[in-house]
Write a structure and sequence with these properties.
The chain is mainly alpha-helical. It has 16 helices and two strands. The longest helix has about 35 residues, at about 230-260. The chain starts with a helix and ends in a 7-residue tail after the last helix.
Length: about 425
Amino acid sequence: MKTTQETAIVHQPDSRYAMVRLALTLLVMTVGSSGMYVVSVMLPAVQAEFGVARADASMPYTLLMLGFGFGGVLMGKLADRIGVMKPLLMGSVFLAAGYIATGLSQGIVSFTVAQALLVGLLGSSVAFAPLVADTSLWFVKRRGIAVAVCASGNYLAGAVWPPIAQHFVEQVGWRQTYIGMGIFCGVTMALLALFFRARPPALAEVAPVSQVAGSTLVRDMTRPFGLSMGTAQGLLCVAGVACCVAMAMPQVHIVAYCGDLGYGPAQGAMMLSLMLGFGIVSRLVSGAICDRIGGLRTLMLGGVLQCVALLLFLPFDGLVPLYLISALFGLFQGGIVPSYAIIVREHFPPKEAGARVGTVLMFTLFGMALGGWMSGKVFDLTGSYHAAFLNGIGWNLVNVSIAAFLLFRVRRMRRGGVAVAA
């Protein structure tokens, strides 16, 4: 029987096993990330049953995303020490318990606690940042597209689960839907986790080099973008919050928005599914682009296009235009979050990739959490989602500004003869 060390020697980066593992990772993320999107579908029914304001009904999503972010860092560190299989098994148990507890909740407080602690912090969190970091360690030549495929599982969950959840909510109610999902997702995720026993290969990477004017320059990864590592990571974290506050506006509230416009929640659920389905395409295309132009330029491109899509929501609120804009929004913004993982792998020491990827992705999730709540609060204050879209556009401009600043730093370093990646 092979030991862990022997298995690591056999399974090399970019190998056939790495490809099989990537396919399984996609399935795990699709199942484990379901909670992020189902809660949006449940929002109108939960608000009606518990008799709370829109902002209060949005709070479970906000705290779920906060728990999801913190849990990603905790589970990522645990996976660094003992491998990703055991955290996945733990996550499957807590995800099942969280869904069942949510279905049995008797008020908005118990509903929120189950979502935040069981579904977010201890359940779904293992199915995102730890898997993205794990995937980045199994690929070298095609790291961008591999990470994009992995992260597409998060959007695949968004494309698959909302219409399924909406169907069962209409047939049996939101409580029974949550309980049924708990049984299915818990069992499925646990079975898939058993295939993740092998640890990532020990990547003894030397300092990355670049060819400039015929000479070889060693890239200084202790000064990413010519900044201290703390400052550089801080800017990426702020950019992650800003882009995802903007991203959360349509993703969290499109179902409620369609209900307010008189189209009904079922139309909104289909728009959300369409949006995230095109997000899958966006992530795959952006991954291929990222392998050619680098993570930072990919981030800049995605940020600009996301802002364009948000602007289109302002003048158009017809049913057909909303379907088209939802598709465009998904197509434009799907590659933004995976680009952060690539930026970290390009500009920071490889041995710190797990913790730093987890931290930056945690802040993107904080942005989703803040954006989900903030959009509901703006709606409660103004009675319209128009101002909420404007708020998202403002945050989006912050993200684009940071990406532009970091690109400026990279180009200035290149003119000075310092080898960097963009």
